[in-house]
């Protein structure tokens, strides 16, 4: 892919397109009447709505249905691809924001749709149909980090966002936030739909993806993100992302 695309070619009003974007590039909060898929063929994209953040390395893409306020941030030098899904096709996909696995066919269809002008009538419409067909078969992925509304939970999650590697127990965090361990444990399950341990694991995976994308070693990433040893990090990363951190970095180099 020629690297002549400029960051200025993407902004919040861009329904569909592509650009090479620098690390940390941010598309501000906006919404669309159509659905939108965002794929980083290189790098990582994080899509944020009021329901939380969805992170997608190069084997995933984020999906935002019509009408959701959302923003995007890119990590690493990102080959960003935006695909607008017409409203009449959106009912075939999830009714909420999601992350989907990217099959080889889905990847090539997205690259073709966003990487070259339409040279034959109807070519883009046919590519859209292929993309939606592939997504209806693709599994949703567990790379969603929900964010709380309860002030006590927000205090706890804020401490962990500030230091993902922090080894504090929920009881210790609760003392800092002014809430009991039992109350916080209940709130994690009732408001966020997961245990405190699971939420913190996914948070750490989010930050680990950023480190790995920047070329940080697996061992250093494990230590920075709070794992006591690389093997436990590799196990957690593989379970959530679907591939080992070493394989993830090898794929990045391949791309």
TrEMBL record:
Q: What is an example of a GO molecular function annotated in this UniProt entry?
A: DNA-binding transcription factor activity
Alphabetically ordered keywords of this record: DNA-binding, Repressor, Transcription, Transcription regulation
Query: Could you tell me which Pfam families the record lists for this protein?
Result: HTH_18
| SMART domains linked to this entry | HTH_ARAC (SM00342)
Checking InterPro entries in the record gives:
Homeodomain-like_sf, HTH_AraC, RmlC-like_jellyroll, RmlC_Cupin_sf
List residues of the HTH araC/xylS-type domain. 154-251
UniProt KW Transcription keyword: yes
Q: Could you identify this protein by its name?
A: HTH-type transcriptional regulator RipA
């Amino acid at each position: 892919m020629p690297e002549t695309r400029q960051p200025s070619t993407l902004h919040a009003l861009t329904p569909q397109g592509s650009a090479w974007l620098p690390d940390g590039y941010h598309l501000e909060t906006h919404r669309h009447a159509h659905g939108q898929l965002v794929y980083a063929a290189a790098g990582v994209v994080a899509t944020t709505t009021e329901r939380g953040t969805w992170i997608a390395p190069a084997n995933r893409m984020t999906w935002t249905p019509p009408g959701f306020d959302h923003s995007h941030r890119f990590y690493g030098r990102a080959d960003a691809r935006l695909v607008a899904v017409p409203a009449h096709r959106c009912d075939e996909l999830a009714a909420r924001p999601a992350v989907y696995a990217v099959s080889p066919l889905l990847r090539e269809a997205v690259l073709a749709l966003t990487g070259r002008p339409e040279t034959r009538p109807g070519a883009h419409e046919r590519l859209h149909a292929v993309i939606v067909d592939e997504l209806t078969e693709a599994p949703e992925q567990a790379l969603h980090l929900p964010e709380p509304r309860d002030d006590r939970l927000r205090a706890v999650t804020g401490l962990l966002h500030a230091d993902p590697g922090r080894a504090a127990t929920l009881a210790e965090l609760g003392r800092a936030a002014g809430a009991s361990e039992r109350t916080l444990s209940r709130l994690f399950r009732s408001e966020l739909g997961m245990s405190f341990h699971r939420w913190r694991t996914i948070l750490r995976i989010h930050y680990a993806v950023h480190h790995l994308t920047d070329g940080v070693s697996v061992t250093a990433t494990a230590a920075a993100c709070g794992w006591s040893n690389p093997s436990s990090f590799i196990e957690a990363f593989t379970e959530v992302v679907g591939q080992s951190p070493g394989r993830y970095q090898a794929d990045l180099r391949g791309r």
